[in-house]
Amino acid sequence: METLATLFASIDYRDPVWIAVAYFLGFVVWQIGLPPLVGFLIAGFLLNMLGASGGDFLNEMADLGVTLLLFTIGLKLNIRQLLRAEVWGVATAHMGAVTIGIAALLLLLSGTAIPLIGGLSAPTALLLGFAFSFSSTVFAVKVFEEKGGMGSHYGRVAIGVLIVQDIAAVVFLAVSMAKIPSPWAAAIIAALILSKPLLVILLKRAGHGELLILYGLVLALGGSALFEFVSLKGDLGALFFGVLLAQHPKAAELAKSLLSLKDLFLVGFFLSIGMAVLPTIETTLVALLLMLLVPVKVLLFFFLFTRFNLRARTAIFASLSLANFSEFGLIVVAIAFKNGWLPEEWLAVMAIIVVISFIIASPLNVYNSQIFKRYHDWLHKFEHRERLPVDDLIRFGKHRALVCGMGRVGAGAYEHLQTVFKGEVVGVDFDEEKIALNRSMGREIIQGDAGNPDFWQRVDRKDHALELVMLCMPNHEANLNAARAIREWGFKGNIAAVTKYDDEEALLHKAGVDSTFNMYAEVGTGFAQHSMSELTKAPIR
What pTM was estimated for this model as a whole? Predict the structure, then answer.
């Protein structure tokens, strides 16, 4: 907690003004569909041009933001997902190829008079190639959340690739310290591993509110301080504590609860980067030259994804979400500058590249469906003959009724439909526990995220006898996305959906839903009817 005390003690009169400027520019770029961090970087550049300088508060914010970023990355580490060939194979092959390729290009140009590039050494070129190989986790998550693609196959693959990249960045952070760990380091790490059951118990008992957020802060900052104490990189401590809890079901909730706090402190990082360097004509020209590498990164991602048996649509969607440079690249370059491995101008180049790449990548991801449709025939030429099971066609066959979302509502709907469509009902859900539970009760169920349009793109539109689709997913956006996608592939039957609020009904009807059932409005009626039926059964006293 000493770090937080230092943070608030370091506030001076300038910092609130600089944060206000960051908010204004972040708000402006957000209105045009770009991530707010683009505005934060621009704010830093603008303040730098006006001669402003940040106080200690911004530096403390920056350090805390990076620490929380690594802690949340640790919480999201799913070893089984990372071990899939289409994740680790693509990530490592792409990073290696881009790092070596960009380094070779820079060395080829080092004999020219191009500013900053002329006279580059091989180690410096490799370091820059490594920094340019990253894609942005912040950008990808924003894209997936806005388009409902977080649960899609392409979304999971892209996030997996980004986590592998993040791990590589964390290794770089550790190596860059060049510290000799304390003899107590191994004992501390062993003790922390043994304390995992206690950490899990505390996580379970932390509730769902402010105690959960404070628990995350204690682990992130405490882990950082503990690793610093034994001469290890503090940020690795935050990552390590995150990894310890990553497999617990509540880890996702903890990461989500810290999301806004992490993003808030990262404002300090992006502001401090912009205020540390001033873009010049030379750095801007070099940045524009290196922006030509973005199409190469995208095409290489697409080629590798298809070689690992992903469908063309999945591969291009995942590739477009990675069509940018990363905030982690900024972190790598910032550390290299602090260690004297790179001149200050490269920090400006990296910041400019990140901003421009986000501006370019945003419309690519907004219109990714249109891009795929336009180049459909050409992209399909690269598809592998074999497909991954999760990416194969979905056939409903003889089934006449489909229930999307097999929770309590969906399971109840399934059972009632079986009385009408005997043996011709099938359910869909992405939760493995729900799938196992429903199958144990004899229900037929397909694994998939029906709330994601990507699921419906895999459906065999000719081989089905569906008459009724019931959307029983708890998320309104998921039901809305599913309704639109079902109508897009030409389904003419009846679609019914559950709702929670009155204003959701009009949106669902507009998306193609025929009938809606308001759970909150109808539960009272159902409860009263049930009570009255029980009353008539009760013996007269």
Answer: 0.69
